[in-house]
Predict the structure.
Amino acid sequence: MIVIVKVKEIMKKSVITIDPGLTIYDVAKIMTNNKIGSVIIMDKSKPVGIVTDDDIVGTIAMGKDPKKIRVDKLKKRLRFVTASPDDNVLKVTKKMVKTGIKRVPVIEKGKLVGIVSDKELLLISPELINILSEKLKIRVDSVAQVDQEISGICERCEAYSDNLRNIDGRWFCEDCR
């Protein structure tokens, strides 16, 4: 049995968006009033960036006046990593860890449809998935015979399967073979 958790299953669908002309001060008020840690910057209904609580703290720490710094001046240095609703959660988790971000806007056909944060990922324990994945990979590589079916993580879709087969030195589930 293959279990793949998709981003659309865990993402928050309600996302607060802002205009790029707002100041950091205005954004901080919006985030405080909504009790959120980020807002998505929209330019003509297209998501183009993200402002997080870390960006606000960083602006203040650099001695800049948040009432004078506009979001459009800040966004050039913001990391804007996105996901698709059909991406698997493990892939998105790896992307977040690699880039050091805590929130990923979910985009479908150029439109913002949700957001995934580290909080949603913690609910499905990705750390355990990663540990299991690595341990199974080590076991597979050390004991598996090329012509046998085994249990483990598919090297293409990264889902767990009881029916992995070796194809050209890589282990694939039924769906990916």
In short: The beta strands are 17-18, 38-43, 46-52, 103-108, 111-117, 150-153, 160-167, 170-172.
